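REQUEST FORM: STRUCTURE PREDICTION
Request ID: SP-0412
Submitted by: Lab K.M.
Chain count: 1
Length (residues): 425
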Amino acid sequence: MRRISLALTLLTGTVLLSCNSVHNGRSKNLTSITDSLTKELDSFSKTTLIPGFAVGLVNEKEMLYGKGFGFAKIKDSIAFTTSTVHSIASVSKTFLALAVMKLVEEGKLSLNEPINAILPYKIINPYYPNIPITVRHLVTHQSTLIDDAFVPYYIGEADISIINDQKKYDSLPAYLQPNLEYYRMGKRISLDQNIRNYAVAGGKWYTDSSFLNKQPGTFFMYSNLGASIAARIVEIRSGMTYEKFTQQFIFDPLGMKATFWNIEEADPSKVSQLYAHNKEKDPTSVVEHPQYYMTNFPVSGLKSSINDLSLYLMEMIKAKHGKGSLLKAATYEQLFQAAPDVEGLNKSDSAIFNDKFAISTFWSITGEGYYEHFGGNVGIYSFLFFDPNSNTGAVGFCNLRDSDFGDLLSIVYKYQKKIAKIHKD
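STATUS: Completed
RESULT:
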């Protein structure tokens, strides 16, 4: 018995040593990769006009890398960090996917339900008046609703408004003055009124071209308006404001304490300044741009930090494998399931992140099988993606809408692939 016990002890010790060796090897490899990533991002930050940015890389358990570069506020020399609060633009729609599917799980909503059975008004594609638009059409961008955000301008209104307008913005570059004029026409109205104005026949912002001449459910066209309607449906069927619903069922459970729909609720010292180019062509520097509020806020108005978004991304990675905490495995499976191919998708585009390759519930699925979403607006570029095969992903954003952001994405993707390799080994 003593010989057997000794043999087991020796064997166990060997296994433990082997496991520790593998773990230590992975740790060293990860440190080497992240050190190289920091050097490359630091070099990038010194050559770009983008004042500040931050990125995070995660697996299903933890943040593997998180770092900010440059400035959140140039004037005050405030560094951009993983705690900096910044808008994520259209990445906000991935949270809308969760909100919709939460109601589906609770039996309060069906994806096949016609939206006119839910809304207190009728939204009808005039080219196909007898074909109902369903909730599924909204969440897969097949509603045939068209975005035309500048229609209100022609009657002296806007669906966007400036937060804390100041006289200093009068000196913005000439190319930005039309935007400034437009923003100053805006006032805060409800999400419901925004939809009525745009999508209901007779609405103030409704035009004959508000819809594609395509049958709903047969054509892909990205639609903020369609997503706005989905958010309003969440409010109607939950009996809660969209802000309260997402706070209660997403942000609080995940511990996202630096995530807000209204930027005024954030700690001002943590909020990044927005920037724009000093010239429309061949810019040489940046200028401060005012914060703004959009009445379709659920589809593009979320503000968060890289630390918070990393928590969210970890949940998404786990959820893809049926191990998420916010929804049941079957519900998440439905959320991530690719919709049938329709006209308008682009299977021939060989770009790494082809956002028209395939679509699930407000997520794009790439040819490599990545799930991703991007966002962009004045003073904002953002990305969020994960690879379910390696259980790794990345998130990032910056405070200037600049083409260099594509280079930033490429750098992060390159290192995510390196991390994915050691993660799988």
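NOTES: Residues 2-47 form the longest helix (46 residues).
Reviewed by: T.R.
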